[in-house]
């Protein structure tokens, strides 16, 4: 386990989001990305909660933002260095953004995420 300062970790998450191709980033709609520094569901590094873009219809209006939560302590627990944390944050952010676009876990695994 490696310990990463909360502010440094949030910067890693921001950098991972900035690394998403512009075309995809512009398609993201009504989603908030947050970091939870303590706790979180056992075994989860990140969590997407909401209505994926592929399931939204013309009736989707006035909804609260979808949420992507990245769990700092869980990611730090599975990594042995800051560079591993950086890579795991990137992978986790991309994985959860994939869910926002309606891509399921099985397909994300096929794609290497």
Features of this protein?
113 residues, alpha+beta, Zincin-like, 3-stranded mixed β-sheet, 5 helices, globular
Report on this model:
Strands 1-3-2 form a three-stranded mixed beta sheet. It has five helices and three strands, in the order ααβββααα. It is of the alpha+beta class and 113 residues long. The mean pLDDT is 93. The two termini are 22 Å apart. The chain is globular. It has one domain (6-54, 62-110): Zincin-like. It has helices spanning 6-18, 22-27, 72-77, 82-100, 105-110; strands at residues 31-36, 46-49, 66-71.
Q: What are the SSEs and their pairings?
A:
Elements: H1 6-18, H2 22-27, E1 31-36, E2 46-49, E3 66-71, H3 72-77, H4 82-100, H5 105-110
Parallel strand pairs: 1-3
Antiparallel strand pairs: 2-3
Helix pairs in contact: 1-4
Q: Summary?
A:
The chain has helices at 6-18, 22-27, 72-77, 82-100, 105-110, and strands spanning 31-36, 46-49, 66-71.
Major sheet: order of its strands? 1-3-2
**What is the CATH level 1 assignment?**
Alpha Beta
- CATH architecture field: 2-Layer Sandwich
The global form is globular
* Uncertain stretches: none
What is the number of helical segments per DSSP (H or I, 4+ residues)?
A: 5
Count the domains: 1
Portion of residues in beta strands equals 5-15%
Mean pLDDT: 93
Secondary-structure element string: HHEEEHHH
Report the count of strand segments.
3
